[in-house]
Amino acid sequence: MTPKLSRLVTLCGILAVSAATGSALAQSAGDSHSARVWPANAQLLLMIQKAAHTLNYRGVFTYHHGHTMQSSRITHVFDGTNERERLEALDGKPREYLRQNNVVRELIPETQTVLLERRQGDLFPGLLLSDATAIDQHYRIELRSELSRVAGRACRVVDIVPKDEFRFGYRLCADDETALLLRARTLSDEARMIEQISFTQLTINPKLADNQLESSWSLEGWRTVEPDEKPIDLYALGWRIPAPPGYVATLQVSRAFADERRVNQLILSDGLATISIFIEPYQAGLSDYKPHGPARNGSVNIYGGQVGDFWLTVLGEVPAGTLEQIAKAIQYNPSHAAH
């Protein structure tokens, strides 16, 4: 993957358990059913979302795709008004992410840099990436009768089944007592697991010291960097980008990169899945416009191509055919641009 494409994939802030367990496990878990009402519609997802925002918890979760596994420690506190969260990467390069509500500080120790950003959508154990009102139109939500177990806690298995070919399915396991999301799997159209993110350790309502929400590094002398971006209207600029059924635009911005390029970005979401479309001027002398056509990076499908004097990169955790359909339907006519 080229450095440029890697940067684009990184920008896409992009989301994501098990099949039926043995009868002995189901029986032991079934003895502890909670009195909570579990609706088989989008309200269930809102309930899971609320738990991620309003509970206090600390734990370790693991992301798994193919041969890749990465673990992180999360500490989350809600005081009745504001959320605070600390996320520590336990594998690879040291990173910490300190969040208050939707403002996130990414700490990069090797350059002593604090990258300040406003988060779009939720990350695990959050679930929804945009408005949930249309989810029932495009997904079927099925609540299984048996319980499973994750990180030593009984959890409800929820299948989110797509009604068309434009999105993947999901299998969730939400804590039976609190509705906190404990495990999420993204499933292909053949019900094959594409990726999984799951708690391996979890304490709900833990006793926390004040410094457990603070960075382990002294930030004195570190520089703070905010992304150079501004809102835009791609339609007014002459772009016609048909969205697949159920997907709506949630963000349109122009981003500046270190090499003085500006790249326009459109994010589409159906509430669970997101698609990012990057548009930049095409320069024939450069050789790093990749991919040409379909490609894949981990669980993210990618489609690249040229439209007029521009290069498009379309990516997301959605079926490859969805991205190809979008890319081939995009049109640019400068005469349609507002003057």
UniProtKB/TrEMBL annotation:
Coiled coil: none annotated. Residues 1-26 form the signal peptide. The keyword Signal applies. One of its GO terms (biological process) is regulation of polysaccharide biosynthetic process. Keywords: Periplasm, Signal. It is found in: Periplasm. Its main location: periplasm. GO terms for molecular function: antisigma factor binding. GO terms for cellular component: outer membrane-bounded periplasmic space. Residues 42-215 form the MucB/RseB N-terminal domain. Residues 238-331 form the MucB/RseB C-terminal domain. InterPro entries: MucB/RseB_C (IPR033436), MucB/RseB_C_sf (IPR038484), MucB/RseB_N (IPR033434), MucB_RseB (IPR005588). Pfam families: MucB_RseB (PF03888), MucB_RseB_C (PF17188). Belongs to the RseB family. This is MucB/RseB-like sigma(E) regulatory protein. It comes from Jezberella montanilacus.
